[in-house]
Specification:
The chain is an alpha/beta fold. The chain has six helices and nine strands; from the N terminus they run H-H-H-E-H-E-E-E-E-E-E-E-E-H-H. The protein has a five-stranded parallel beta sheet with strand order 2-3-7-1-9, with helices on one face. It starts with a helix and ends in a 12-residue tail after the last helix.
Length: 209
């Protein structure tokens, strides 16, 4: 792992790995990998990934997530924003917020704002008061340093603007055809068979590295 870290091709390796699952979205794969890693630095960068349903927003994250240590991120969906309450106290990584397709409550949206300069992120989320039954806004201060989200409903406060990278997925017809062709190829040649036949391009590292 230390040998890999000192190689100039590290980002290229991450891209080659991500391309096994997602094609035509090189910038999304690279930026997601960088954002995950930036959560371990003094100047974390967050990201908002936009696009139509089915354009590969969540897939762009799943494509490189196996390369990221599990203790570096905490994931939940916008349909369960109160899940943030169960965030471990010592967690200081990246909030991974997925869009819950087809699920939209009447409770409003999740809000994120910065506390300090790259120190942590506060979440403001809708919750139901058990006594009155009414919806109200709850707050949770976290040690999370940044976030990556595929949801367009999240309200990002202005104090986070200059640290948020926005990326739009390519939903062109040409790329859609390429993706469909890849799906057909993958169905015919799963990874196990590709490895046996020598069709899978070897990478100079293991996921653990």
């Amino acid at each position: 792992a230390e040998r890999l870290l000192n190689q100039g091709e590290l980002l290229d390796y991450a891209l080659a790995y991500g391309r096994r699952r997602l094609i035509g979205e090189d910038e999304a794969i690279k930026s997601n990998f960088i954002m995950f890693c930036s959560g371990r630095t003094r100047y974390p960068v967050s990201g908002m990934i936009s696009g139509f349903s089915g354009s590969g927003k969540n897939e762009s994250i799943r494509a490189i997530k196996p390369l990221i240590p599990k203790e570096w991120y905490f994931e939940f969906t916008t349909s369960t924003p109160e899940a943030i309450k169960y965030l471990p106290e010592d967690f200081d990584g990246t909030l991974l917020i997925y869009e819950a397709v087809g699920v939209r409550g009447d409770s409003g949206s999740l809000s994120l704002r910065a506390i300090g300069e790259g120190e942590s992120i506060e979440t403001i989320y809708p919750m139901r008061n058990e006594l009155t039954g009414k919806m109200e806004m709850g707050k949770a201060k976290t040690n999370a340093k940044n976030f990556i989200t595929t949801s367009s409903d999240i309200d990002v406060n202005p104090d986070l603007y200059r640290r948020v990278l926005k990326h739009s997925m390519n939903h062109s017809t040409a790329l859609t055809k390429r993706v469909m062709a890849k799906e057909l190829r993958d169905a015919s040649y799963p990874d196990s068979l590709r490895n046996t036949l020598g069709l899978q391009k070897e990478l100079p590292f293991k996921e653990e590295d």
